[in-house]
């Protein structure tokens, strides 16, 4: 059997692995730029309300299914190979979308693509968290979020460019381009190493140590960092074996706290309402009086803003901690929702026939300062989200699980994300029609509730090993609001290992001197 060479530079590994995130981004904006085009509206008979909600939510529906099987699949075949398996469904789903002749076929294609996204969105963060050093884990996992955002931006402007193509070839061309990132992901995956923690979990200890050394210490299996981290992994596995098997392990002792945190942090990311802006800023732009190319470009700029500010956070994610990002981010987003909803409430006019004939947009905001305020605070909400909850929720969910529960636990977390994503996808288009500006007030209240939840229930995980995070959630763990970034016991373990090496070397030198003295006698 041919063994391909492996890449052990973690940043390069992350770039390849997070092409799975780019698939997610491509499928999101494959609709964002297209739903307002005449070609789409005419071909699918101006879908609105529940029908448009079903088209938009089909991705999330498929992702729910993918997330549900991702954990067992990843535990059985490994993180890397489960991502490869998911790619097959992306290829099939893209074919179904490109050849679509009806709303039903379009929904089916998006469900298949969503199945892929459900697996990759849950297992890519697991894979990255398991190969990363504790002090670099956040900046590595955040690459997944950046890949999603680059996918959204690239696909949005591809869709915008394709809007100048006549007829159904417009959206078929845009959807066909989704093959490209999947192709590169399939080519690159065989060159990635398996997760050392997964190898340890399935009993391949020698391979696990070698992979850990290749990733962390250029292949030196005697490196103090490698020795200390391996001891952490072994200790965690021993504790998990004592905890038993089955679903009970997700709720026994302090594990229920991690299960609650992992599931709820992903739910709150959706309930914070950022995806209303991400998916439907084109609608909001038209409500604010923007038309044609101006509305499309204005909507597209938000994705560039997304990338810029997530890129800024990439530099600081492991220096500011998780709790401040989550709490402050939720409050900041809530403020933006209240401003947008308040301005719309006091400066809107009904348009029963739909703005520009679009049946999903039945009210407009008066031009001038009110319309400008809505656009500015929609952008500001994206800025706050890209700095805080967008990367923070995925990182937190990937960090908190134990070795034996990580794949399935992250699968459960992603499942929570996609269930609420689906619900909101179905809710948002009808909500724009029926409750209009009140949708933003609802999301504002939910953001405040999220901030309180984060403060009360989530301990700080930044700068700690995956194994010692278990202590944070244990029955004897500290109160969440008393936890701080860093303070890792791995550093002490490294010093112990170094001391042991120095002592062994000193004793070895002493023994050599004794032998030399005996030889002279």
From TrEMBL:
Residues 504-513 have a biased composition (Basic and acidic residues). GO terms for molecular function: carbohydrate:proton symporter activity. It is found in: Membrane. One of its GO terms (cellular component) is membrane. SUPFAM superfamilies: MFS general substrate transporter. Residues 13-462 form the Major facilitator superfamily (MFS) profile domain. Its main location: membrane. It is a multi-pass membrane protein. Pfam families: Sugar_tr. The chain crosses the membrane at residues 12-37, 49-70, 82-100, 106-128, 140-161, 173-192, 259-282, 294-317, 324-349, 369-397, 409-427, 439-458. Residues 499-521 are annotated as: Disordered. Keywords: Glycoprotein, Membrane, Transmembrane, Transmembrane helix, Transport. Gene3D superfamilies: MFS general substrate transporter like domains (1.20.1250.20). PROSITE patterns: MFS, SUGAR_TRANSPORT_1, SUGAR_TRANSPORT_2. NCBIfam families: SP (TIGR00879). PANTHER family: MAJOR FACILITATOR SUPERFAMILY (MFS) PROFILE DOMAIN-CONTAINING PROTEIN, PLASTIDIC GLUCOSE TRANSPORTER 4. Belongs to the major facilitator superfamily. Sugar transporter (TC 2.A.1.1) family. This is Major facilitator superfamily (MFS) profile domain-containing protein. It comes from Coniochaeta pulveracea. The lineage of its organism: Eukaryota, Fungi, Dikarya, Ascomycota, Pezizomycotina.
């Amino acid at each position: 059997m041919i063994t391909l060479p492996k890449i052990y530079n973690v940043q390069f590994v992350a770039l390849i692995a997070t092409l799975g995130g780019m698939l997610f981004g491509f499928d999101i904006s494959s609709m964002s730029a297209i739903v307002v085009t005449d070609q789409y509206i005419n071909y699918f008979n101006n879908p609105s309300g529940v029908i448009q909600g079903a088209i938009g939510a089909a991705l999330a529906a498929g992702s729910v299914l993918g997330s549900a099987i991702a954990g067992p699949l990843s535990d059985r075949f490994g993180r890397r190979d489960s991502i490869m398996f998911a790619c097959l469904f992306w290829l099939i789903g893209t074919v179904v979308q490109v050849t679509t002749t009806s709303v039903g076929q379009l929904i089916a294609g998006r469900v298949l693509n969503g199945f892929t996204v459900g697996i990759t969105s849950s297992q890519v963060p697991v894979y990255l968290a398991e190969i990363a050093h504790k002090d670099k884990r956040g900046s590595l996992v955040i690459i997944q979020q950046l890949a999603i955002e680059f996918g959204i931006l690239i696909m949005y402007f591809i869709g915008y460019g394709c809007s100048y193509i006549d007829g159904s070839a417009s959206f078929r061309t845009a959807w066909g381009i989704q093959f490209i990132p999947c192709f590169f992901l399939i080519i690159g995956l065989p060159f990635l190493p398996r997760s050392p923690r997964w190898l340890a979990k399935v009993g391949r200890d020698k391979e696990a140590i070698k992979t850990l050394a290749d990733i962390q210490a250029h292949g030196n299996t005697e490196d103090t960092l490698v020795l200390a981290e391996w001891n952490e992994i072994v200790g965690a596995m021993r504790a998990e074996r004592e905890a038993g098997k089955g679903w009970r392990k997700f709720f026994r002792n302090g594990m229920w706290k991690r299960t609650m945190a992992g599931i709820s942090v992903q739910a709150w990311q959706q309930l914070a309402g950022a995806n209303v802006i991400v998916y439907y800023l084109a609608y909001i732009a038209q409500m604010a009086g923007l038309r044609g190319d101006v509305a499309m470009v204005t909507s597209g700029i938000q994705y560039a803003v997304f990338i810029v500010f997530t890129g800024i956070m990439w530099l600081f994610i492991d220096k500011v901690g998780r709790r401040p990002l989550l709490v402050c981010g939720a409050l900041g987003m809530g403020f933006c929702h209240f401003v947008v909803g308040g301005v719309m409430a006091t400066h809107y006019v009904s348009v029963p026939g739909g703005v520009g004939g679009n049946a999903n947009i039945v009210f407009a905001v008066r031009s001038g300062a009110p319309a400008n305020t809505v656009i500015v605070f929609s952008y500001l909400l994206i800025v706050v989200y890209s700095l805080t909850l967008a990367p923070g929720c995925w990182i937190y969910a990937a960090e908190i699980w134990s070795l034996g529960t990580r794949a399935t636990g992250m699968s459960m977390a992603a499942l929570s994300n996609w269930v609420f994503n689906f619900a909101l996808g179905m809710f948002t288009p009808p909500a724009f029609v029926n409750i209009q500006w009140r949708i933003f007030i609802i999301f504002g209240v939910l953001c405040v509730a999220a901030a309180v939840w984060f403060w009360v229930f989530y301990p700080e995980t930044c700068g700690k090993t995956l194994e010692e995070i278990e202590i944070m959630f244990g029955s004897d763990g500290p109160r969440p609001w008393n936890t701080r970034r860093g303070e890792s016991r791995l550093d002490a373990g490294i010093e112990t290992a170094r001391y042991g090496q120095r002592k062994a070397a000193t004793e070895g030198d002493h023994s050599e001197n004794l032998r030399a003295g005996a030889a002279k006698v």
